[in-house]
Amino acid sequence: MNLFTETNLSPDILKAIGELGYESPTEIQKQTIPFILSDIRDLIALAQTGTGKTAAFSLPILDMIDDTSRKIQLLVLCPTRELCLQISKDIKNYSKYMKDIKTTAVYGGSSIVDQMRSLKDKPQIIVGTPGRVIDLINRKALDFSAIHWLVLDEADEMLSMGFKDELETILRETPETKQTFLFSATMNKEVERISKNYLTKPHRISVGSINEVKKNITHEYYVVGYRQKKEALKRLIDANPNQYSIIFCRTRMETQEVADFLMQNGYAADALHGDLSQAQRDTVMKKFRLKNIDILVATDVAARGLDVNSLTHVIHFSLPDDPEVFVHRSGRTGRAGKNGISMALIKPEESRKLKQIKSATKIEINEKFIPTGEDIIKAQVGGVFEKLLTEHEDIFEFDNSLIPDLSNFTKEELVHQLLQFQLKDLALYYKDKHDLTEQKLSSRDDDYSRRDRGRDRDSRDRDRGRDRDRDRGRDRDRSSKPRRRDENMVRFFFNLGKKDHLKKLDVLDIINKATDDGKSKRRAEIGDIEILEKFSFFEVEKSFKDNVLSNIQSMKFKGKDMRAEVAN
Ligand code: AMP
After folding, report:
1. Could you tell me which of 47, 75, 70 has the C-alpha nearest to residue 171?
2. Residue 329 is assigned to a structural domain of this protein
């Protein structure tokens, strides 16, 4: 089945989806449409947002729905008001030419009296959030006696939002003869439990395995200390001009803080989280869809209801605990055949979490360095030319006679001058700024001299694989130079180096393991890490000195013994 016209869907449905530009079914639609049309079993479908789930269940159901009956036949439950509105809008579009079919959305945060009034229209399809559906059941405003299909959309999300009791009540209140379709992006214990208790011998389908969907997304991570995270974020934004992105945070407070920081720094950004009123959330989403703002800072839950296909970047300001959430977030970019970039800011002590994400998702996530001022200006210049070559602005008119005689300038001189005007503020901002990568790994020295910076930049280039030969034999010279140190840190000599294929991430992991005694609630602070050819140096908070000394010698790296000593 490669075209919708090869399905058995009715001409009214085919006409409606044809107008929406749907030609071929998506992967999940290929699997669910024939199943729902011909099978009476329940269904568990593992699929992420953006895979075409709504059409996957609603098209075959619309095909079979009885339009002569005015009783509710399909109930769709979903986690948020936004998703509820989106799904009901989609179903209304698909049933545009089915004049007797009515769909009503019911959700919290809006007048229940108005919704009860709209139920008087006798819709056959209800799309609702669990809480509001329960309220309406309690007010005896919903008659579920003729329900034929129950869809649980984003079941994992509904459960993680605490709708467990509501879901179980609704599952019990609806007729036993119904067919239940459970859609979920992840299959955790809770989802398994619900399906075991309430679904009968369900057929299972799964689409878009994690890697399959993500091939066109490049994954990067940047290690940065907590205190420099916002500045690092600013640099990532500046180094990726013309972006349209979502920045994911863990908490509502963090989301607001990051958005405030960006707005204060002049970016067209805003926050989306659960502390905002519904009207405020609607306004923010509208601004983002219309591209009045091009950066949205959001919590995972709040971003769920947002349906945008053209994101260029996803930035993980904070890592999620669940690797699947990482995949979910990243999958917001790279849609509709476009390429996408996912960038994660990682605190030094999060190396283990990053490893877990890498191994659970099998995604290749490459370490990159926080862009320097120089990198940023280069990227901005590139961004100006990209815009020049791809966009044509015609906002205001002006008379060519206003252009003076410029024949004394060459083309390059003119372009140079115009770029100077255009990028002046940015260039001035970064002119005397320290590079963050070095700051994060070195000990927050404020009077870090220009020479040191140049030297560290060299060392970074070497890390990147350039000038490998040049640094042979220089290790001792470099490490013996006096450096200002943080008094709270102890500097260790470590017996492994580049020749042992040791990476910074490995060192972070080793330190985290050595300092985690299972008792301390707090993680050790990690300072400078310097990996040289044959050995390395790293800094760890003083109070963890003994843990490092005693634990490292009993650990192995790629089969090799490890040894750490306090450096002179
Ligand atoms: P969903 O996963 O249901 O949120 O759908 C994601 C997006 O894909 C929505 O914008 C749909 O309108 C669109 N879509 C769904 N099915 C198809 C299809 N077969 N062809 C083109 N676009 C589709």
Report:
1. 75
2. yes
Instruction: Give the integer Cα–Cα distance in Å for 496 and 529.
Output: 12
In a domain, 102, yes or no: yes
d(CA 445, CA 13): 66
54 touches ligand 1 (CB under 6 Å):
yes
Query: 82 and 15 share a domain?
Result: yes
The response to whether residue 4 sits with its C-beta less than 6 Å from ligand 1 reads no
Does ligand 1 come within 6 angstroms of the Cβ of 50?
yes
Across 77-95, b (16+ Cβ under 10 Å) vs e yields bbbbbbbbbbbbebbbbbb
Full strand arrangement of the beta sheet holding 489-494 = 526-531, 536-541, 489-494, 564-566
Ligand 1: distance of its center to the CA of 54 in Å?
Answer: 8
Torsion-angle region of 214 (φ positive above 0: left; ψ -120 to 50: alpha; else: beta):
alpha
Burial of 487 (0-12, 13-18, 19+ CB in 10 A): exposed
Return per-residue pLDDT of the chain as tens, 568 residues.
Answer: 678 988 889 999 999 999 998 888 988 999 999 999 999 999 999 887 778 899 999 999 999 999 999 999 999 999 999 899 999 999 999 999 999 999 999 999 899 999 999 999 999 999 999 999 999 999 999 999 999 999 999 998 899 888 999 999 999 999 999 999 999 988 878 899 999 999 999 999 988 644 344 678 999 999 998 888 999 999 999 999 999 999 999 999 999 999 999 999 999 999 999 888 888 988 999 999 999 999 999 998 888 777 787 899 999 999 998 888 898 899 888 876 678 999 999 988 888 889 889 988 889 999 898 999 999 999 999 999 988 888 777 788 888 898 888 888 899 999 999 999 989 888 989 987 777 754 343 333 333 334 334 444 444 443 343 333 333 333 333 333 344 567 788 999 999 998 888 888 888 889 988 988 777 667 788 888 888 888 899 999 898 999 999 899 889 998 889 999 998 7
- Judge if the beta carbon of residue 208 lies within 6 A of ligand 1: no
Assess if residue 393 is contained within a domain.
Answer: yes
Which CATH number does the domain housing residue 144 bear?
3.40.50.300
Q: Which helix (H) or strand (E) holds 328?
A: helix 323-330
